[in-house]
Specification:
By secondary structure, the chain is of the alpha/beta class. The chain is 34% helix and 20% strand. It starts with a strand and ends in a 7-residue tail after the last helix.
Length: 212
């Protein structure tokens, strides 16, 4: 089978889990390129570094505690390709996903709605683990390296403000195409005041209306 024109970029910290489960799952998805970024820097710096080294048409940022189904990338890719002849090709393809062991959420099946800029202005509902056209990512300026939380929301808002759009990929069984395991607390476990401040930072940057 011909490899998919996708560069998978992993900001790598947890090598044991990555080597045992995450990397084999990525390989089964048959991307052309897998780029592991280690060393200093926050996750966004590592993602941007990986994007600068990517050679393929599409980017997929995969966390090192995320397990993909074997057909995750092919489903996202087909969905993206289906928009190419519409006159307004999508910049992002996203999907349902599972949340496991999140410190601030119950284990859950996340089923995001269709792309809607107005809905995005109210809250983020699209995971960073989405397929992104490389040219659109670079046109949007990449990821803001000064943001360490809700960086995906920031990127989607930037793209929407530039007139780009996303498309949701689904399967016949409407299943989650990947599982985010959250094997350690990390930044996600910060207290509510820190979460509120991070959300407000995004709202201020994008001039979003105050939460009622």
């Amino acid at each position: 089978m011909k490899p998919l024109p996708i560069s998978v970029i992993v900001p790598l910290q947890r090598t044991d889990l990555y080597n045992a489960a995450v990397h084999p799952a990525i390989q089964k998805n048959n991307p052309t390129q897998i780029i592991n970024i280690t060393g200093p820097g926050n996750a966004n710096q590592k993602r941007n570094e990986g994007a600068s080294k990517a050679t393929e048409t599409y980017l997929f940022f995969c966390d090192d505690d995320t397990i993909l189904l074997p057909y995750c990338l092919s489903t996202l890719y087909r969905t993206m390709q289906a928009t190419q002849s519409t006159g307004r090709p999508a910049a992002v393809a996203y999907c349902n996903f599972a949340v496991i062991n999140h410190p601030n959420m119950r284990n859950d099946f996340c089923e995001p709605p269709d792309w809607d800029p107005e809905q995005l202005r109210k809250a983020n509902y699209i995971s960073m683990m989405s397929l992104i056209r490389a040219d659109a990512f670079h046109k949007a300026g990449g990821l803001d390296e000064t943001i360490d939380r809700y960086q995906d929301w920031d990127l989607w808002l930037t793209m929407a403000e530039m007139g780009m759009r996303g498309v949701k990929a689904t399967t016949k069984r409407n299943e989650a195409l990947f599982a985010a395991l959250y094997v350690d607390k990390g930044i996600t476990s910060s207290n509510w005041q820190e979460i509120k401040a991070a959300r407000q930072r995004i709202r201020t940057k994008h001039r979003l209306p105050a939460i009622q």
